[in-house]
Amino acid sequence: MRPDTPAENVDHTAEAARLERTAGLYPEDAEALLLQAAAHLELAGDRPAATTLYDRLLSSPESLDNPHLIRALKASNLWEYGHEAEARAIIEGLRAAAPRDPAPWVIIAEALESHDELEAAEAAFSEGARLLLTDVSEPPYSTHPLLFGRHRVRRMLGAAHDEWDLLADTLHSSPVSLDELHDPKRVWSLGSDNPAELAAEISRLRAELGTYREALSRPFPVAVLHWPAPELAELLAAYPTLEAEYPSHEQHLKTIEASLRELSASGTANLGIVTGTVPSYEAFAASEGTSPADGDLLPQYATTLAARGRAVAWPPQRGAACWCGSGKSYGACHGHAEVRA
After folding, report:
1. Tens digits of residue pLDDT in 184-211
2. Which pLDDT does position 96 carry in this prediction?
3. Residue 165 and residue 24 share a domain
4. Cα separation, 68 vs 78, whole angstroms
5. 0.85 surpassed by pTM
6. Which of 199, 216, 233 is the last residue of a domain?
7. What is the rounded CA–CA span in Å between residue 106 and residue 149?
8. pLDDT tens per residue, range 260-312
9. 162 lies in which domain range?
10. Is residue 6 situated within a structural domain?
11. Same-domain pairing of 285 and 205
């Protein structure tokens, strides 16, 4: 659930510095870029510097997209270099805040798990699951780590499978079952002199690595571009040839929802929406050495915004506001049954 930070062949300190410079160039993307920089600093072993970046974000006068995620990352990082009391206080505050995003729940639960507080970790995983998955027919892709982590901790505690554990089993795509991957006795196999036991453990580790690589193969969501009504009007006034792409704003919104539902039905996971602005789009066109009137540039612009951390996950969590900006909940707006039809 952390920002994508490949661990091999990377000078993490230099990469963190590069990301900080980039954040200065793109202040609208500073949150995502500085989170990646902090993750690189953690990997470099400079945890105090990572905390400084988390504090810089949390003290920013600009509104944050996900302050709960930043606090969770800060707590996890603090605990790793001896600031346990402060980390615990942040974790308790996050649990009381009950964020509607699975990432903070996963991070604080894994922090507790890594310090052998399995009961507390199971409670955090379960709190997040109850909040985000109660009465949800199909768990969003972003919630899968919540279910898998909960399954792992409960297996270590020797708890019997419940409905959410069974759901985690059905969502798991690796040829090696979650029960095997999360078997507490697995670690003993690594010290075995029995070649058969070692071969079996290598097979399980390869399956686990395959699942991890599959998740990392999509570090950014498959993103669809959204233009708010004022931005779309400005775009079409400046570049009338794009009217073929956007016959009306209402149709534009319907097309976004229909496209995302079609992608989801075809099995595409990790879907998202990026919101465009005319100045940003014009700057992107200039950087590509082409005209903003070129409709072929629009998908590239969407991909670039997603790569800069601007994507919002689709579908929104239960009770969250609709992605279109109407102010209504998603269920009462583009997630309504009449819109789906």
Report:
1. 776 555 556 667 666 666 666 666 555 5
2. 96
3. yes
4. 15
5. no
6. 216
7. 7
8. 999 888 878 778 999 999 988 988 888 788 899 999 999 989 988 887 777 88
9. 12-216
10. no
11. no
